[in-house]
Design goal:
about 35% helix; single chain; 3-stranded antiparallel beta sheet; about 300 residues; mainly alpha
Length: about 300
């Protein structure tokens, strides 16, 4: 009944389903030693007794996906059927699923083309699915202690009045004025300096976008220095780059592969939900094909299972 776990369950599934050196995903494993995976231990511990209770019929990988599908149903008010059972859980993890390869979800990708290549390689996504998946940030919250990003020392959200209910406000928000800033993270040294974009004053309503979000509409590939700092603007907001006159800052070019999709989703909520459903089901099928000993179970949306 704790709705704060809706976004956490979906986040866990992304970190789980990212492919790795063997081209395998959705294996019920996340390595908590990787900095990208900080903050996932709570939902992993929450799901441990459920996975143990049904381990005769579901692998831990299946349980995590079933939980994510349920979270998507709660968030979107749509039906997300569990079409396949039989994903193989990794063998080198503890009882909550901590283990496996030490990788995060994004890697070192920083601009549009790199990000799209990354999501194609590790999730099988095209450009449209990548944009749709980013829309899930709209129900999420970033915490400085978990990511090095936030509203000063406070958590931040991507959209106004964020909740567990999915909207297309994430895409509408790209029309706001966004200012680039660097966080020194002196209170969170493990993350080092982080860059982000903000809208609004320093209060509880201040919104934040990450570079991976900005990359969905603007391609700053040619405007990144050797330290990863971005020196182009996405609006004429003042205080850009430490107060420099925005007239002296070049505009970031449009991300031609994704720009129109962002605008389409901002205008058409139903289209966003349709594409999100298709793309998430596609991602969750990854791993099922490998199964275990070809002993696949078929699950039907009405709750019947045959094996």
């Amino acid at each position: 009944d704790d709705l704060e776990y809706v976004a956490k369950a979906i986040r866990l599934s992304f970190h789980d389903c990212k492919g790795h050196s063997e081209g395998y995903g959705c294996d019920g494993c996340v390595n908590l030693n990787h900095i990208d995976n900080i903050g996932l231990e709570g939902i992993m511990e929450k799901l441990r007794p459920i996975a143990e209770r049904y381990e005769e019929h579901l692998s831990r990988a299946d349980t995590w996906i079933l939980c994510a599908l349920t979270a998507l149903e709660i968030s979107t008010s749509r039906t997300y059927p569990m079409n396949f059972i039989g994903r193989k859980s990794c063998e080198d993890s503890d009882d909550i699923g901590d283990g496996g390869e030490n990788h995060g979800v994004y890697g070192d990708e920083v601009h549009t083309h790199q990000l799209l290549r990354h999501f194609t390689r590790y999730f099988g996504f095209d450009a449209k699915c990548t944009v749709a998946a980013m829309g899930l940030h709209g129900i999420s919250k970033m915490r400085p202690e978990n990511s090095g990003h936030g509203n000063g020392p406070l958590p931040a959200t991507w959209v106004k009045d964020a909740s567990y209910k999915m909207t297309n406000d994430y895409f509408k928000g790209f029309e706001y004025e966004w200012t680039y800033e660097e966080r020194d993270n002196k209170d969170y040294p493990k993350f080092g300096e982080q860059s982000q974009w903000y809208n609004g004053a320093y209060d509880e309503n201040r919104l934040v976008l990450l570079n991976v979000d900005i990359a969905m509409k603007w391609n700053y590939e040619e405007y990144v220095d050797d330290k990863g700092r971005i020196y182009c603007k996405v609006s004429d907001e003042a205080n850009h780059h430490g107060g420099e006159d925005p007239r002296n800052v070049p505009e970031c070019p449009r991300a031609y592969q994704t720009y129109n999709t962002v605008r389409e989703y901002a205008e058409n909520y139903g289209l966003f939900l349709n594409d999100l459903e298709y793309c998430m089901i596609q991602m969750y099928t990854t791993g099922y094909r490998n199964g275990y000993d070809n002993s696949y179970f078929n699950y039907y949306g009405d709750g019947r299972a045959t094996y």
